[in-house]
Design goal:
Helices cover 28% and strands 24% of the residues. By secondary structure, it is of the alpha+beta class. The chain is elongated.
Length: 247
């Protein structure tokens, strides 16, 4: 099980997930490079913006500058809410995990990667008993890129046979998570963003501090469907599943 806390250093968010095994509890640092976040236009295309205009009651041909809100800012806020609520990233970002050896000792030999789908794993190495960094070849494991993303190996103990397991975090994994294009975003997420955009637009005058205390039921339904699909992966980074699933 994982619990989390975070700090921010120079645009990089450092999360610390608490990993609990049968024998001990370890704190797993995760570093999210916010500066690597893709531009919102990779997801919010002109076609999507036209659909949002129609959804909030405007003609799709209405110039964006003529709208009473900054549509790009509105969609960025919707994306941030979805990312926070669904425990996965929509805009692509680079994530680095510093892992304990015990994280790979599951019965089914699956290591789940938090924050959603993965389309690029750039670093996978470990520190050996001599203090040297050893790279793990992609031929030695299988990466399942879909949601939830996960790694599988027929025998992790053999792969890490000379690992320095005295270190708390001898394994480093760096990957890019999120969606590279609008077409890659699940349709349920697109619908959730549309519902949020309408909700935030309609109640824009009532939301003065940028926070949203109540979200529309339609959005919450789509959110919870996604959370249930990713339940096992989310358990790695959530201390209390009931709090994540809203009961």
């Amino acid at each position: 099980m994982w619990a989390s806390s975070r700090s921010i250093v120079s645009g990089v968010i450092i999360l610390r997930f608490v990993y609990t095994s049968l024998t001990q509890t370890n704190t797993m640092p995760a570093i999210i490079d916010w500066s690597s976040e893709s531009d919102i236009t990779t997801i919010v295309t002109d076609t999507f913006l036209s659909a949002i205009k129609r959804n909030i009651g405007f003609d799709p041909d209405t110039p964006t500058a003529s709208l009473p809100v900054d549509l790009t800012d509105l969609m960025h806020e919707c994306i941030q809410i979805c990312e926070r609520e669904q425990w996965r990233f929509i805009l692509t970002k680079s994530v680095t995990l510093l892992l304990p050896y015990e994280a790979f000792l599951t019965a089914d030999r699956l290591m789940f990667l938090p924050f959603g789908s993965v389309f690029a794993l750039t670093t996978f190495n470990f520190t050996d008993n001599d203090g040297n960094t050893q790279s793990v070849s992609s031929a030695d494991y299988t990466l399942y890129e879909g949601e939830p993303a996960k790694l599988w190996c027929s025998d992790w103990t053999q792969l890490f046979d000379n690992i320095d397991d005295e270190q708390p975090y001898p394994i480093t994994i760096e990957y890019t998570t999120g969606y590279a294009s609008f077409t890659a975003v699940p349709k349920t997420t697109i619908r959730a963003l549309k519902i949020l955009a309408y909700h935030l637009f309609e109640y824009r005058d009532a939301i003065s501090d940028g926070s949203v205390s109540e979200l529309p039921q339609g959005y919450c339904h789509l959110r919870d469907l996604q959370l249930l699909n990713d339940k096992r992966a989310i358990r790695y980074i959530a201390e209390d599943w009931l709090k994540v699933s809203r009961g």
